[in-house]
């Protein structure tokens, strides 16, 4: 085959390059369609949902690790945990005021309790109550005097993921 | 001019385009590949920032400890100010955390927490609390930690601080180490127990099941025997018994676990570990069951009670307290600071036994001498045999009026207002002291008889190698004068009014009594009786077990006198972190 065809026709080079760019353009458009697809959106939502729960767990862990006296559970596991916190000056708040987290009605809630009642708090950091919805089998386990494990299974809001398990082990700094 | 061929004219932009496309694809691949790593690194950075902030608190606590040991301001902890610490701690500059890390911390504020001492918590003085704020940063993350640090005036708070650790926990692996030939043999034969962290090499047990097996009063050998050695026919609990009364007549602190039978304490008890009453025994505190702070005790007791098949009928220990609350680090004197303090404001006695008052020669005879001494037999928690110390000590003698024709070199006249004596040589001590006094030596202090009994003056003994008893004088006197049993009985009762750092460093005699098979004790030395030691003051650190072993049961008693170091220029002060809280900075 004579490569040098002059201006009379298309060179092999040009054919090859045209094919390559066509492939890249085709691939890119498929890729952009894929980015816009429902599957991708669902995946992004799922990631955002997992990320959000992990961030929330960070906040919960921080709050529990900062507790001055960890009251409950003393042994074994429980659906709720309670602890006493310190005021801004570092002084211990009176023992009738306890804060805690409760797994109830399929959600995790940040609560405060005193001698009379247990009431839900408005928010924990940037997270509003309930902190997690659609969760099951949530429990706080006192693994050892200085360690607490939170675990629960959650379903994503759109129902695409079911029973995804989240666990977090917290070192109780002040026990 | 050469004409460029048509196909070559179009080649250059095409090559550029291909190049850019390749670069773009590679950059995308690298970005995707590194995305997870970057997310991971962000998480690590956030952890490091948090750790840096908390390490700032530990840094501050260590600096506070050093500042307290090296300043006479600590003589009155109640008068310390936040400025005293802030000058030494607060910085604008960031301190690198660790050696290779990219994290930094700084201490931004030290404040005193103004609260009154609560009489319901005798082990804690709420008026000695400080709040420290520290910041940590790594990458774009910042955390701040706020901690409450508690100061403990040890002499004021505790009758016995860490001196009865061995007495209340015993030496539960010593016999097994001895049978195995060495600690290493014992550890390798019981590797599973050590690897799981249930037992450490000092013999401290952290597992309720093993604790029960080790200390059950009728148990069998809980350990595996090392190869080629027979297993022992008993457990430690068969030989361990702690009924009766505590030698401490006042608040007691132990760094080790406390294990007792129906034992009576004369004041509140605190341990950094746990408190375990064996079986159905009923330990008591004489002055009402007040303020018992013990870490994880209730948990341990519940676990062991359920093993024994009983429900806890009464709970002696209130509840598990905070780890940081329970542990109080030991106090260590700063000898360099005390030496320089004695040179400027006190009496310094050099290695030749010559004295200097406020830096100028002081013509007082301190009776320098040299002696060869033999100790009692003793052994550590995991040693394989009894040991006996032989010392060649260069010493000085303070106030042994009996031997020196009534000449008392620490009378008020001879002290000339000095409140601190620092001796490079070991010190022999007895008799009455004419002033409030701190006696410091890097060597031993040998107490040779009743000390500081006739006055209400303060006395603090700080010996780097420990405070020991010396029976040389009494033995010689008995040999020379051959007095009656009543005199001997009276003369062997020693009242010591002092706060003693590192007591229990043995009992010494000038007479060689080599141990031949049986250990040497000083129990039946004085007309078939032992010394009776009555300390009015406080004991800090050391190990009183050797004095317990060398005296008859009940002959060692420490009565707490909280004010025994009130007027002195040195006061043992320790500090720990009560609680801390770390938050991200918004």
Please characterize this protein's 3D structure.
The complex is a heterodimer of chains A (175) and B (586). With 175 residues, chain A is an alpha+beta fold. Chain A has one domain. Chain A contains two helices and eleven strands. In chain A, strands 1-3-4-5-6 form a five-stranded antiparallel beta sheet, with no helix packed on it. Chain A has a four-stranded antiparallel beta sheet with strand order 2-9-10-11, with helices on one face. Chain A starts with 11 loop residues before the first helix and ends with a strand. In chain A, 22% of the residues are buried. The model of chain A has no long low-confidence stretch (mean pLDDT 84). Chain B is α/β, with parallel strands linked by helices. Chain B folds into three domains: 46-152 and 574-584, Pantoate--beta-alanine Ligase, Chain: A,domain 2 (2-Layer Sandwich), CATH 3.30.1300; 169-245 and 254-324, no CATH class; 335-569, no CATH class. Chain B is built from 16 helices and 28 strands. In chain B, α9 packs across α10 (297-307). The N and C termini of chain B lie far apart (70 Å). The chains are: A alpha+beta (175), B alpha/beta (586). Chain A binds chain B through residues 6-7, 11, 13, 17, 24, 62, 65-66, 68-69, 74-75, 86, 88-92, 145-146, 173-175, and chain B through 6-7, 14, 21, 113, 115, 129, 131, 146-148, 295-296, 299, 302, 320-324, 579-584.
Q: What descriptive keywords fit this protein?
A:
A: 175 residues; alpha+beta; five-stranded antiparallel β-sheet; four-stranded antiparallel β-sheet; 2 helices; 11 strands; B: 586 residues; Pantoate--beta-alanine Ligase, Chain: A,domain 2; 3 domains; six-stranded mixed β-barrel
Topology readout:
The complex is a heterodimer of chains A (175) and B (586).
Chain A (H helix, E strand, L loop, with lengths): L11 H25 L1 H28 L3 E4 L4 E2 L1 E5 L13 E7 L2 E7 L4 E3 L2 E2 L2 E2 L6 E10 L2 E8 L9 E8 L4
Chain B lengths: L5 H4 L1 H59 L12 H8 L5 E2 L6 E11 L15 E10 L2 E13 H4 L2 E2 L3 H5 L4 H7 L2 H7 L1 H5 L12 H8 L28 E2 L2 E2 L2 E3 L3 E3 L2 E3 L3 E3 L3 E3 L6 E2 L7 E2 L2 H11 L15 H4 L8 H10 L2 E3 L5 E3 L2 E3 L6 E10 L8 E12 L13 H4 L4 E4 L2 E6 L5 E5 L2 E8 L7 E12 L1 H10 L3 H7 L1 E17 L22 E9 L4 H5 L6 E5 L12 E12 L2
Helix pairs in contact in B: 6-7, 9-10
């Amino acid at each position: 085959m004579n490569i040098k065809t002059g201006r009379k026709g298309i060179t092999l080079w040009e054919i090859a390059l045209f094919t390559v760019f066509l492939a890249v353009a085709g691939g890119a458009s498929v890729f952009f369609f894929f980015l816009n697809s429902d599957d991708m959106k669902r995946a992004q939502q799922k990631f955002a949902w997992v990320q959000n729960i992990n961030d929330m767990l960070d906040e919960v862990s921080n709050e529990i690790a900062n507790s001055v006296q960890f009251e409950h559970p003393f042994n074994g596991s429980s659906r709720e945990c309670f602890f006493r916190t310190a005021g801004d000056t570092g002084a211990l708040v009176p023992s009738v005021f306890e804060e805690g987290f409760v797994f109830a009605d399929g959600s995790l809630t940040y609560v405060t309790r005193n001698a009379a009642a247990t009431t839900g708090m408005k928010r924990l950091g940037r997270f509003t109550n309930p902190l997690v919805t659609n969760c099951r089998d949530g429990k706080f386990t006192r693994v050892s005097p200085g360690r607490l494990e939170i675990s629960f299974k959650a379903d994503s809001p759109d129902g695409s993921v079911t029973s995804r398990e989240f666990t977090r082990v917290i070192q109780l700094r002040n026990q | 001019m050469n004409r460029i061929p048509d196909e070559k004219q179009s080649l250059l932009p095409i090559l550029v385009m291909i190049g850019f496309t390749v670069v773009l694809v590679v950059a995308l691949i690298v970005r995707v590949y590194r995305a997870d790593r970057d997310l991971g690194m962000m998480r690590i950075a956030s952890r490091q920032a948090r750790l840096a902030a908390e390490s700032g608190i530990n840094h501050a606590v260590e600096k506070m400890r050093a500042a307290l040991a090296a300043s006479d301001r600590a003589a009155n902890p109640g008068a310390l100010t936040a400025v005293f610490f802030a000058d030494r701690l607060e910085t604008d500059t960031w301190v690198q955390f660790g050696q290779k890390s990219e994290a930094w911390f700084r201490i931004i504020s030290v404040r005193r927490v103004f609260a009154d001492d609560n009489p319901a918590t005798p082990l804690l003085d709420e008026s000695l609390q400080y709040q420290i704020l520290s910041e940590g940063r790594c990458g774009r993350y910042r955390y701040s930690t706020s901690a409450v640090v508690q100061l403990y005036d040890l002499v004021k708070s505790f009758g016995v601080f860490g001196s009865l650790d061995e007495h209340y926990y015993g030496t539960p692996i010593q016999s097994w180490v001895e049978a195995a030939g060495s600690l290493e043999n014992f550890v390798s034969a019981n590797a599973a127990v050590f690897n799981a962290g249930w037992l450490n090499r000092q013999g401290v047990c952290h597992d309720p099941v093993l604790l029960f097996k080790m200390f059950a009063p009728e148990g069998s050998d809980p350990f595996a025997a090392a190869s080629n050695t027979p297993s022992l026919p008993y457990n430690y609990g068969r030989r361990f018994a702690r009924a009766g009364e505590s030698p401490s007549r006042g608040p007691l602190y132990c760094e080790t676990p406390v294990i007792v039978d129906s034992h009576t304490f004369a004041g509140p008890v605190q341990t950094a570990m746990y408190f375990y009453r064996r079986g159905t025994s009923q330990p008591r505190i004489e002055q009402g069951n007040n303020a018992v702070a013990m870490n994880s005790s209730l948990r341990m007791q519940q676990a062991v009670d359920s093993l024994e098949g009983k429900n806890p009928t009464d709970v002696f220990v209130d509840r598990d307290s905070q780890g940081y609350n329970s542990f109080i680090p030991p106090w260590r004197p700063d000898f360099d600071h005390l030496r320089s303090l004695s040179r400027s404001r006190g009496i310094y006695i050099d290695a030749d036994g010559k004295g200097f008052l406020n830096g100028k020669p002081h013509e007082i005879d301190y009776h320098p001498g040299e002696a060869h001494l033999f100790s009692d037999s003793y052994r550590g928690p995991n040693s394989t045999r009894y040991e006996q110390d032989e010392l060649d000590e260069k010493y000085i003698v303070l106030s042994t009026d009996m031997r020196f024709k009534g000449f008392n070199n620490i009378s008020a006249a001879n002290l000339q207002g000095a409140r601190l004596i620092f001796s490079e040589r070991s010190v022999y001590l007895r008799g009455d002291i004419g002033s409030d006094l701190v006696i410091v030596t890097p060597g031993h202090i040998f107490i040779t008889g009743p000390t500081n009994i006739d006055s209400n003056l303060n006395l603090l003994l700080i010996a780097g190698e420990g405070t020991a008893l010396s029976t040389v004088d009494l033995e010689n006197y008995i040999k020379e004068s051959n007095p009656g049993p009543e005199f001997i009985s009276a003369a062997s009762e020693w009242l010591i009014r002092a706060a003693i750092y590192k007591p229990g460093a043995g009992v010494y005699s000038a007479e060689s009594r080599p141990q031949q098979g049986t250990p040497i004790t000083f129990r039946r030395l004085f007309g078939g009786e032992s010394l009776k030691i009555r300390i009015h003051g406080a004991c800090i650190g050391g190990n009183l077990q050797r004095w317990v072993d060398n005296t008859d049961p009940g002959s060692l008693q420490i009565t707490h006198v909280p004010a025994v170091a009130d007027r002195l220029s040195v006061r043992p002060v320790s500090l720990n972190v009560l609680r801390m809280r770390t938050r991200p900075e918004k």
